[in-house]
Amino acid sequence: MSNDKSVQLAAIITKHEAELLEGWFSGMMSRMLRRDKNAESELRQQGAAFLNLLSEALRNGAGADIEAPAWDETRRMLAEISHARVRQGFSSIETAHFIFALKEPLFGYLRNELASEPALLVDAMSTTGSLFDRLGLYTIEVYQKAREQVILRQQQELLELSTPVVQLWQGILALPLIGTLDSARTQVVMENLLQKIVETGASIAIIDITGVPTVDTLVAQHLLKTIAAARLMGADCIISGIRPQIAQTIVHLGVNLEDVLTKATLADAFVVALKRTGSTISHGQSGH
């Protein structure tokens, strides 16, 4: 898009700004599934602000290369809108429609203004369409990156929630594991356990694998690494929840757990932990 074409398009947008905004707003609202007065007001404000930024960029001679410095403010606004749409639960198509809905009313004013110059009209429609396609794709790109960040953050939060470290007694921690262990989750397990050891000064950590469906070589290695890290922090580990099938699998795999204390149940492991810490539980009897 040449400088003359950019300036000409900016002039058309400025000349018909109010009507253009209304036509654009109607197009956007026709595709919105969720409506409320606050959303409509925000959409109008965003539309008016975008038209001003678009006109300014075009008046400065900005072509269709939206990575050029003249488009910085426009891109910044579209990025903010895309991030907001992610938080509000809109789809990428709904987000991009903010740009694409402007095409039809703008093309209508281009046809009216350039009706007497068919060749110029065709060229203007083509270059304007290309510009808006790039702006629309930019909003989709930003939306997808923001959405991926949200998903990664949610996955991390779920990992942390699925690996709680519980203080059972003074100096005794329990880490009940449920589900499959992989490298990412094991890293979270290790970090949470070590942090809790530091916070509580615990000397015993019980890792309960009752809820782990299968134990393969990789899972066993992850457990051994976690135990080794805990020992470096001054805490011994007991593995509980060793079911017969898992015991057979561990033996079959040749995994060496000889220097790791194992127990069939969490209760058994807790009794051993109490003895090691010199703690006892007395059962009181009610008098009559």
Automatic annotation (TrEMBL):
Transmembrane segments: none annotated. PROSITE patterns: STAS. The keyword DNA-binding does not apply. PANTHER family: RSBT ANTAGONIST PROTEIN RSBS-RELATED, RSBT CO-ANTAGONIST PROTEIN RSBRC. The keyword 4Fe-4S does not apply. This is STAS domain-containing protein. Residues 162-273 form the STAS domain. Coiled coil: none annotated. Keywords: Phosphoprotein.
